[in-house]
């Protein structure tokens, strides 16, 4: 975080990860049951928003070993609807890369998902058409699909497993590699949506041109609060307060 030495940052992150890991195992079952009860379901796969939302949280328990903690159902919906809005307003040539954000990718409508890719370290989704194995320590390496994917995306959506600047610098390299010609990450070229803690706001603007949005996602099994960030104006769903966090 800003103002900390690398050693202090690493120590803090290790402590937070230990706390959140301890909490996750005991709290996830209750969280999943709460999701099923509170989301208005029209059939077994979709919510009233027309998104594929319930299945992901029911079928993919969090994995603390990967520092994998999911947004709440309502937060997945809000983030997904922002992406759906952009996809539908820009047309079939608008392509989105979801970096370490599988819950949003899999919540997309089937139609929208056809022009999106999900890039993640967890290979349990590798049978999906849009899955690409991604290791943030190799920011511009997307395996056999590297040549196809470089400089081909209009939007990247990012939620790293760690909050440190060092990790965000690697994700920034990935964004630079994936987005269409976008030397300044301005709204006329590559668009970016990300989530991380409020303390990271200075380097989110420095690295990606992103500013904090009004919407703050809920992550039930994480011990610290995230903000949402975007490098463009006019975000609709990120421009509203989240009643889970800011009633």
Automatic annotation (TrEMBL):
| Keyword line | Cytoplasm, Methyltransferase, Transferase
Q: Which Pfam families match?
A: N6-adenineMlase
Give GO terms for biological process.
Answer: methylation
Q: Does the keyword ATP-binding apply?
A: no
**InterPro entries annotated for this entry?**
DNA_methylase_N6_adenine_CS, Efm5/EEF1AKMT1, Mlase_EEF1AKMT1/ZCCHC4, SAM-dependent_MTases_sf
Q: List GO molecular-function terms, semicolon-separated.
A: nucleic acid binding; protein-lysine N-methyltransferase activity
Primary localisation category = cytoplasm
Cellular-component GO terms for this entry? cytoplasm
* Cell location: Cytoplasm
Q: What is this protein called?
A: Uncharacterized protein
């Amino acid at each position: 975080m800003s103002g900390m030495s690398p050693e202090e940052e690493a120590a803090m992150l290790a402590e937070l990860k230990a706390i959140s890991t301890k909490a996750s195992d005991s709290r996830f079952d209750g969280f999943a049951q709460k999701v099923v009860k509170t989301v208005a379901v029209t059939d077994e796969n979709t919510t009233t928003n027309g998104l594929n939302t319930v299945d992901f949280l029911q079928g993919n328990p969090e994995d603390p070993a990967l520092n994998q903690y999911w947004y709440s159902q309502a937060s997945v919906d809000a983030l997904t609807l922002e992406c759906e809005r952009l996809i539908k307003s820009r047309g079939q040539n608008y392509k989105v890369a979801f970096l370490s954000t599988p819950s949003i990718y899999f919540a997309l409508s089937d139609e929208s998902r056809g022009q999106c890719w999900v890039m993640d370290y967890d290979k349990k989704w590798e049978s999906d058409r849009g899955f690409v194995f991604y290791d943030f320590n190799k920011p511009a390496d997307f395996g056999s699909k590297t040549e196809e994917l470089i400089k081909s995306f209009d939007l990247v959506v990012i939620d790293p497993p760690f909050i440190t600047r060092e990790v965000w610098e690697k994700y920034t390299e990935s964004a630079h590699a994936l987005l269409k010609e976008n030397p300044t990450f301005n709204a006329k070229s590559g668009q970016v949506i990300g989530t991380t803690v409020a303390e990271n706001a200075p380097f989110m603007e420095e690295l990606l041109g992103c500013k904090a949005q009004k919407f703050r996602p809920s992550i039930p099994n994480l011990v610290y609060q995230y903000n949402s960030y975007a490098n463009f104006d006019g975000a609709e769903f990120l421009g509203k307060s989240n009643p889970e966090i800011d009633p």
